[in-house]
From TrEMBL:
Gene3D superfamilies: 2.70.98.10. GO terms for biological process: carbohydrate metabolic process. It comes from the Eukaryota. InterPro entries: Aldose_1/G6P_1-epimerase, G6P_1-epimerase, Gal_mutarotase_sf_dom, GH-type_carb-bd. It holds the Pfam family Aldose_epim. Catalyzes the interconversion between the alpha and beta anomers from at least three hexose 6-phosphate sugars (Glc6P, Gal6P, and Man6P). The keyword Isomerase applies. This is Glucose-6-phosphate 1-epimerase. It comes from Mycena alexandri. Belongs to the glucose-6-phosphate 1-epimerase family.
Amino acid sequence: MSNIVLRHPKGSSAEIMLYGATIVSWKSPSERLFVSATAVRDGSKPVRGGIPVVFPCFGPPAHPEHAKLPQHGFARSSDWSWDNIIKEEGDYVSITLTLDPTPSIAAVYKRQFHLRFVVTLGEDDLSTELHVKNTSASTEYPPDFLEFQALFHNYVLAPANEVLVTPLQNLSYFDKTESTEEGKSSPKIEKRAGVDVRKFTDSVYENAPGSYEVTWPGGGVAIKTTNLKDVVVWNPAETGSKMGDMEKGGWEKFVCVEPGHVRGYERVAPGITWVGKQVISVVHNARRHQNRSAM
Ligand SMILES: O=P(O)(O)OC[C@H]1O[C@H](O)[C@H](O)[C@@H](O)[C@@H]1O
């Protein structure tokens, strides 16, 4: 499988696989992403770690147009194209990958689309942008809307027993660790000022603020988003031992903080492009201590 490595003159780097457009490493200056030591990297299944791209459905498909798709859609398990261009602009280097319908996608998904995935590396930040264009040629009314969900599945390298995610307090969320369908679909209100993942956690926060801090004693990252109204916090804890591609105890080394549009669907008319974006940056020590002592 082909990987592209972006190198920043100030020392940071990012490695992106064409398979799934998955970012499998971000160093600024040390590694910031978790990838399981037993992740499959030969393009036969999505990578367990890094930043997989979720499109056009999050979780098991619920939309009739997605019925034949696997969990989290096909973007993370398709071969993307790259134009061999690495752009350098100011203090940033970036690449753009694209994905169009292929015969194997068309066999399970009938919609016309064009995806662009832009990865931009700075000295201490990394941004990802997903551009989704509805390329349907239909001129009929009502418009031939493309309805989709999208999410960046960030595996943030962090000590799971100490990490806190903020600010999610008072948001409504869906707890997918509940055992019944009724439990999963009944919203709860987040009471914690800092959300921890010391036990199995799979929470979908709706209409979240769009800016988050993921911090622990000794480090942290901030995530700022555009057009991504929801955020998922996931850590499988011991249930991770059932995943064939999760290294032993791997769940102790990360928290997934996943900004996306996953409750309901984005609707994009023919010819229109939707853009969802996140910027992940290293939190500097002074700010981290301030935030934790305010808790
Ligand atoms: O195993 P995967 O298909 O990669 O999914 C891993 C996880 O992704 C998200 O965080 C979902 O909320 C979880 O329910 C799911 O278990």
